[in-house]
Amino acid sequence: MKVTSGKCSGINLLCPKSAMPTTDKIKQAIFSAIYSRLESFEGKKVLDMFAGSGQLGIEALSRGADLCVFIDNSSNATGIIRENIHNCKLNSNFEIVETDFERFQTKENFDIIFLDPPYQKNLLQKAFKLILDKNLAHNETLIICESNKEITYTNQYQSVFENKYGTIYVSILRLRK
Q1: Is 2 a member of any domain?
Q2: Tens digits of per-residue pLDDT, 2-57?
Q3: CATH number (domain holding residue 80)
Q4: Is 109 a member of any domain?
């Protein structure tokens, strides 16, 4: 697993044993779909909600995002995120929060939110509700979701991209205007 583009391109990333990292092929497809909607990561604030290794947020920082907040409830994962960020020489523009995603507190809202929770825990619906309840998104926010089953969401969201890669479903959502 490595950073696929940007200033950190080619750098190998560590991964917690408990995580199932996004494959480079799927990651490249996700970032291509994001680019077709945003054209640039510059000036963007990113939330990597179930960060694991931090690879999606690190990829966004590598491509020019201004800020990434990484959330994971595992001290092993947050330690690996710190090490990956150090290895990529990303010395600023990030925050690592070791907490359960439901306890996360911020006044920020984000331009890009990555949701790749452990598949067996069915956390996407809770994450969708949390995004609304805590005002983490605005009308132009892209919410990128990964799951091992088709992604369902409430009518407060609308899909702007959906695809299946082998056994993995990817959806990009926005708040319904």
Answers
A1: no
A2: 999 999 999 999 998 877 788 888 999 999 999 999 889 999 999 999 999 999 99
A3: 3.40.50.150
A4: yes
Cα distance from N-terminal residue to C-terminal residue, the chain: 37
How far is it, in rounded angstroms, from Cα 162 to Cα 177?
19
53 is a domain residue: yes
Q: pTM score > 0.90 for this model?
A: yes
Sorted by sequence, the CB contacts under 8 Å of residue 56 that are 6+ apart come out as 22, 27, 30, 48, 114, 116, 144
Which residue segment(s) compose the domain that 103 sits in? 41-175
Of 169, 170, 114, which is closest to residue 142 (Cα–Cα)? Answer: 114
Q: Quick one: which of 166, 13, 25 has its CA closest to 48?
A: 13
Whether residue 90 lies inside any domain: the answer is yes
Residue 87, number of CB atoms within 10 A of its CB:
15
Partnered with residue 156 across adjacent β-strands are: none
Query: How many structural domains comprise the chain?
Result: 1
